[in-house]
Specification:
By secondary structure, the protein is mainly alpha-helical. It is built from six helices and two strands, in the order αββααααα. The protein has one domain. The chain has a two-stranded antiparallel ribbon with strand order 1-2. It is globular and about 50 Å long. It starts with a helix and ends with a helix.
Length: 138
Amino acid sequence: MSAKTNRIILIGLAVLFMLSFILPSLRGPLGIELSGFSVFVANIATVVFVEDFYDYLLFLYTALTNVWVVLLLIWSARIKVKTVPVLILSLLAFTSALSWKFNMEGDQALLIGYWAWIISIVLIISFAIYRSFRNHII
């Protein structure tokens, strides 16, 4: 792929990722629908409930999902992408994104914004891995 095609794909993936923050992502206990950004801010606010080191690691695991995805987007924009860091970040981003599904009590609480977020993360991971194997640098 040419550099122009890579940029177009990268911009499209970034737009899909940002769109998932605007769409309703979670239905609360009172039927209130929260956007992806509201869920992200609420998750960051849970740091006050951290009591021990294990809780802190779980908090970081879920709170840094979006940071890992943004890092993957940035690394995908580079000319040479290293394979090992991309694979590690991809694994962290994918598993922490799916952890949200298993933390919820049912599928009815997760709305279209969450699924758009998951799809955008999977596509960003796929593109980053493709770029890293195309220009194979360990």
